[in-house]
Amino acid sequence: MLCVTIGRSRHKAMIAEYHHLADSGADLVEMRLDYIGRHIDLSRLLADRRCPIVITCRRREDGGRWEKTEDERLMILRSAIASGVDFVDLEEDIAESVPRYGSTKRIISHHNFERTPEDLEEVHARLAALDADVVKIATLANSFTDCIRMMRLAETADVPTIGICMGDIGVVTRILALRFGAPFTYTTLSSDRKIAPGQIPFETMRDVYRPQTIDPETKLFGVVADPVAHSLSPQIHNAAFQTSNVNYRYLPFRIGADELPLFLQWCKEFGLGGLSVTIPHKEAMIELVSEAESACAGIGALNTVSINDMDATGYNTDYRAAMDCLQEALQTQKTMQNVETDSQDLFRGRGVLLLGAGGVAHAIGYGLRQRGAIVAVTSRTDERAEALARTLGGRALPWNARYDIRPGILVNCTPVGMHPDVDRTPYDKDKFDPDMIVFDTVYNPEQTLFIKDARTAGCFVINGLDMFVRQAAYQYKLFTGLEPPTDVMRATVKRVTSPVKF
């Protein structure tokens, strides 16, 4: 079950949100009474029960907002039980003061907003002994090790247990809670209504991660990054899995650099099928995989890991996708010019300027040099441009000299123009040559200022959305062996990056 937590200061708003959620298919709603600033009218809140309710009234020391007396709080909780509410949440120190009555189930809870304690098993045993129908332990994850410990605890518990690690690192424990035996997992109404760190919006949990149907046979995949909350990969891959009707799920993993080896080992032991790898782990992961395709060594980075039992193989789908985009553009350009050219010679001798000298520039530069292009690199940091140019056997230009050459292909590999900084561009609009092919690797927004200016100048343009979808499609095929539903993947990215969402 999905339990949506709501906290509003007025009864009317709390009731309206409850009705909306019940009508939207929520299995359970937690009413946080500590958010109500005035006298609490339980009879009004519980008058029209459309789905089961958890009543919680949390003190400040437990992460809540209750400011009245403890006696008043206990009276509210006892009254909720007397009213026959479905669940009541009781902290460890008050559980014996609020006796069981009627059919109301008791959630005995423990919260720690600073860390995950070493004695998790002892904490769980104390809570379970307090006449608990459900044990709830919510602690802050400061490492992925905390998540592993919490998931193991929940899986082996004798009493139904909701084991949650709060914060971005702990998001996976919320998604997999039902898989490890929890009767329900907590979500929030929307991203701007989070009650606790790391909560996932109800619609995202219900439609993207679908935890109710994750079972022991579900094959798991994920994206590993630090940070990871901004990644669109869970939306695009989960939509593709659902379209293909396969029992797969794709999760976000925020992992620090020091825990990357431990995390990959956990993935192997837990049976994950593969990973998308992004900043800052693309280079470090090469040293951890069993083997990697030759392009990874040439680029010095990978972005995909396929896992088969205890073997992990690395790939780089970024450069494959970029080369596909550029080859298609060059072929289209030649067709428009009525020029016949062998596809093997499309890049040979063609001048390219890469704006930026990071991982994306390295991947694209590698692919271009492999195909015979002449590559120049410019960056705001001269040393990085020079280092990449040496690696590629190309030429480095100072950032202020980027207009001194007229390349046949211009590629933006910087984040300039990415949402929310949509009014900036790395290239002056008056400097575009209409004969250029202009490629922006930024995909959010789809139409960056860089792309708009290039199109206005008459250039042939390639936007980053095409590259992003292509690299994800390559990953999908590596993960599943199936043909990717690229139309669904593209539509999903366009939907979640729509300005309406912001």
Describe the overall structure:
The protein is of the alpha/beta class and 502 residues long. The protein folds into three domains: 2-214, Alpha-Beta Barrel (TIM Barrel), CATH 3.20.20; 239-315 and 480-501, Leucine Dehydrogenase, chain A, domain 1 (Rossmann fold); 319-462, 3-Layer(aba) Sandwich (Rossmann fold). The chain contains 16 helices and 20 strands. An eight-stranded parallel β-sheet has the order 7-6-5-4-3-2-1-8. It has a six-stranded mixed β-sheet with strand order 10-9-11-13-14-12. Strand 9, helix 8 (233-244) and strand 10 form a beta-alpha-beta unit. The two termini are 29 Å apart.
- Count up the helices: 16
Give the helix proportion (percent range). 25-40%
Report mean pLDDT, rounded to a whole number.
95
Overall outline: elongated
Could you say what the CATH architecture of the largest domain is? Answer: Alpha-Beta Barrel
Oligomer: single chain
| Intertermini distance | 29 Å
Q: What is the topology, as strand order, of the major beta sheet? A: 7-6-5-4-3-2-1-8
CATH topology of the largest domain: TIM Barrel
Element layout with pairings:
Blueprint: E1 2-6, H1 11-23, E2 28-32, H2 42-45, E3 53-56, H3 70-82, E4 87-91, E5 105-112, H4 120-128, E6 134-140, H5 144-156, E7 161-166, H6 171-175, E8 185-188, H7 202-209, E9 219-225, H8 233-244, E10 248-254, H9 260-270, E11 274-277, E12 291-292, H10 294-299, E13 304-308, E14 311-315, H11 317-336, E15 351-355, H12 359-370, E16 374-379, H13 382-392, E17 395-398, E18 409-412, E19 437-440, H14 449-456, E20 460-462, H15 464-480, H16 486-496
Parallel strand pairs: 1-2, 1-8, 2-3, 3-4, 4-5, 5-6, 6-7, 9-10, 9-11, 12-14, 15-16, 15-18, 16-17, 18-19, 19-20
Antiparallel strand pairs: 11-13, 13-14
